Every structure is written in C-alpha cells, then in structure tokens.
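Researcher: Let's continue the batch. This sequence belongs to Exodeoxyribonuclease III, and it's 266 residues. Same format as the previous ones, please.
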Amino acid sequence: MLTVSTVNVNGVRAAAKKGFVEWLATTPAEVVCLQETRAEPGQMPAEVREPEGWHVVHAHSDQKGRNGVSILTRQQPEAVRIGFGAKEFEHSGRYVEVDLPGLTAASLYLPSGDVGTPRQEEKERFMDAFLPYLVKRRKAAKRQGREVVVSGDWNIAHREIDLKNWKSNQKESGFLPEERAWMDRVFDDAGYVDVFRRVHPEGPGPYSWWSYRGKAFDNDSGWRIDYQISTPGLAECVKEARVERAETYDARWSDHAPVTITYDFA
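Model: Same format as before. Here are the structure tokens for Exodeoxyribonuclease III:
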C-alpha cells in the first residue's frame, strides 16, 4: 500500500507550534506534500526541516515569506525537479516533484488569484503554462512505465458540490467559469483523474479549506480546493480517501485539512 497526504500548512513555522509536528509523527503516509510553507529551510525548526525518518525536498520562493512547497518521503527519491520549465515561476516556490520507484509525486501550490487584479492575471499565466506541462509529464511517465500524482492546493473548486456557498461565489476567484473549465481540461484533455471524487463522487464536500473568518469551520462552510490528481493507472489503485478534518476549531493547525489517500500500489 502507498499512502499520500497533502496539506497547505499556511506557514510551516506557525503550524509546527500548533500541532503539525505531532501530526507528522503519527501519519501513516509514505509521501507528504506541503504547500505555503512560507520559509526557507534555514528558517524552519529542525523537526520540520529534517524530520526523523523522512527524506525532505524544500522549494522556497524568492519572495521572502511567500509560497513554498515541500515533499517528504520515507524512501529517498531517485530524482528531484523544482519548477516545471516556466521561467516566470521557476523560483516561485509553487512546484516540486520527485521520482520514486514507478511513481512521480509532485507538490503544487497554484496561485489563489483575485478578480480584477494582477494576482488573477498571474494565476491565469500559471494555468496557461502548467497545463501543457501536465500533458508532457503524463506522456513522459507513460514512456517510462511510471504513474504521476500531483497533490496540493489547486485553488479552484471544480464543481458546485466542491464549495458550500457556490451560488454567491460564481464571480469570485477559485470558482470562476473559466477556472472550472480549465480543470475540465486537466481531466479531459490532459488525461488526469480527480482521485478523491473517484472514491466519493457525491457531494456536497467534504471540504478541505475553511476561512478563519466568522463561523466558517463550525458551519462547515468550506471549499474543496486541495486535490490529489493522478494518471488513470494510479487512480485505479485507490483504496481509501479521506479529509482529516479537525474535531474542533481550536484543534486546527492550518485553515486547510490534510487530504489523505491510500493506493494499492507497489
């Protein structure tokens, strides 16, 4: 069995003080993908930078205190690649991937965007550059006899069942028609599979992110924006998929919850 977990930690140094380190010590996952670490390796506490029993790859952003992605694996990777060939995002701390036996695993932090601002334009440029890479990566993996899983914060709720208040968010970044259509292309054109929905096709939810504002968490007024998206061969191996939602608001160590999926893959 192979268990992969992904979570946006919303600042790894803060998360480490709230319970992330304890979660990492008890997770059954063999691969853990982190997003929005917001720290260079030298700024991280040792138990996060080099946790015992893990091989760690960190990709930080040139913008201090922004973005940052990591991959932790029980097994030492055969190869590591940071970025996906787009010069603008090469040092943005938004993408890292590792090769394991028979598998390429990636951690993605897609820009969040903000309608009518340069942030949304950046998100659109990222999407335009990333989709062809997904196609390229899938084709290369097929030639090599490998599967691919891209785990992370995709910052798009794909369907109405993926967010609580979908009607009021149709003009907001993260649920724009063009963003949802782009996700369609990830599945239909690039040939990937939303693994969680393969196991849990019905909604609404479960969600993976809840705003810290108001009573969003208590009311389960969330968004499903954290995905594991894989090649079809790996998706066919899925055995269990769950969102590790905290029992209470106070027990959270991030505004996101880990999305953990187990595959019958060796």
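Researcher: Any comment?
Model: The chain has a mean pLDDT of 96.
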